[in-house]
Amino acid sequence: MTAALTDEQLVVRAQAGDRGALGELLERYERRTYNLAFRLMGNHADACDAAQEALVRVCIRLHNFRGESAFSTWLYRVVTNTCLDELRRRGRLRHASLDDGMPMEEGTLPRQAADEAQGPVEYAERHEVQAAVQRAIARLPYEYRVVVILRDIQDLSYQEIAAVLDTTLGTVKSRLHRARQALRTIIADTEGKCLEIAG
């Protein structure tokens, strides 16, 4: 039974032609692949297309995986590159809302569930802050957006991000620093405009 196998063991078996191992590996990462694609693409339809294309690329290129990084790091790289390729193919970097609900078989599930201990005012305030941050992330240039998502949302280490993006550790740190500065500026500008409208 392949359920107890590690990613590395499944990769070795899949590279040797074990279709069951490949299926288990893809199933293990299907949701994470979609989640990353959704955050990078900004909407459900484009995320589904990009995630599907990324998983196809994983199947085709699995024989190239040498185990120099974790399988998850390699997969994130494939997903990130697939999304970037799609955005470049369209000739634009789409700036869409990231606060859509997570599509489920039963309907749409909100990305942030309400804390049962909170009242409606506290929940609304927290939700508005999260939505503002997500909108700000969507406005970042792709190279900044991807490092923020990989570090602050996906919780990858700097080394893992460098491997995913095929760049240096210094570049990752520099982009992340600039991205966070840009986020602060975007959020401050948005708050300023809101205050002008309210005043």
UniProtKB/TrEMBL annotation:
<dbReference type="InterPro" id="IPR014284">
    <property type="entry name" value="RNA_pol_sigma-70_dom"/>
</dbReference>
<dbReference type="InterPro" id="IPR036388">
    <property type="entry name" value="WH-like_DNA-bd_sf"/>
</dbReference>
<comment type="similarity">
    <text>Belongs to the sigma-70 factor family. ECF subfamily.</text>
</comment>
<dbReference type="InterPro" id="IPR013249">
    <property type="entry name" value="RNA_pol_sigma70_r4_t2"/>
</dbReference>
<keyword id="KW-0731">Sigma factor</keyword>
<dbReference type="InterPro" id="IPR013325">
    <property type="entry name" value="RNA_pol_sigma_r2"/>
</dbReference>
<feature type="domain" description="RNA polymerase sigma-70 region 2">
    <location>
        <begin position="25"/>
        <end position="92"/>
    </location>
</feature>
<feature type="domain" description="RNA polymerase sigma factor 70 region 4 type 2">
    <location>
        <begin position="132"/>
        <end position="183"/>
    </location>
</feature>
<dbReference type="InterPro" id="IPR039425">
    <property type="entry name" value="RNA_pol_sigma-70-like"/>
</dbReference>
<dbReference type="Pfam" id="PF08281">
    <property type="entry name" value="Sigma70_r4_2"/>
</dbReference>
<dbReference type="InterPro" id="IPR013324">
    <property type="entry name" value="RNA_pol_sigma_r3/r4-like"/>
</dbReference>
<feature type="region of interest" description="Disordered">
    <location>
        <begin position="98"/>
        <end position="118"/>
    </location>
</feature>
<dbReference type="InterPro" id="IPR007627">
    <property type="entry name" value="RNA_pol_sigma70_r2"/>
</dbReference>
<keyword id="KW-0804">Transcription</keyword>
<keyword id="KW-0805">Transcription regulation</keyword>
<protein>
    <submittedName>
        <fullName>RNA polymerase sigma-70 factor (ECF subfamily)</fullName>
    </submittedName>
</protein>
<dbReference type="Pfam" id="PF04542">
    <property type="entry name" value="Sigma70_r2"/>
</dbReference>
<keyword id="KW-0238">DNA-binding</keyword>
